[in-house]
Design brief:
Blueprint lengths: L3 H37 L14 H31 L14 H6 L7 H7 L2
């Protein structure tokens, strides 16, 4: 599958991505807290405010971003479990190694390019 150096690089990349996604979740939590406070304020006609994004629109965006970051954390955590179990970088469908270029681009990939194309992932 990979050399020791590239495995070290990939593990560091997983850790870096996990930290970044965790920071995004924290930022979105903070944003949602601020939006909750704003919603309690006097916002008589938020939906028709010509000055900018509505609170409900901002709320939906923040929730979607937080959910995406949480999904990414789950994928990374699963990749780390595969790492610890010795199956990281092995395609779940065909059992062949996932190319290093794919793992660099998508470190939590579970399928090789061919199987990902077949699965539509």
């Amino acid at each position: 599958m990979t050399t020791a150096a590239s495995r070290t690089e990939l593990r560091a990349l997983l850790d870096e991505l996990h930290d970044a996604a965790t920071a995004r979740v924290a930022a979105m939590d903070e944003n949602l807290t601020e939006l909750r406070a704003d919603r309690r304020g006097d916002v008589a006609d938020d939906e028709h405010d010509p000055e900018g994004v509505t609170l409900s629109g901002e709320w939906a965006r923040a929730v979607a971003l937080e959910e995406a970051a949480r999904r990414e954390i789950a994928e990374i955590d699963e990749a780390v479990r595969r790492w610890e179990g010795g199956t990281y970088g092995v395609c779940v469908d065909c059992g062949r190694g996932i190319p290093i270029a794919r793992l660099r681009a998508r470190p939590f990939a579970t399928r090789c390019v061919s199987c990902a194309e077949k699965a539509g992932a």
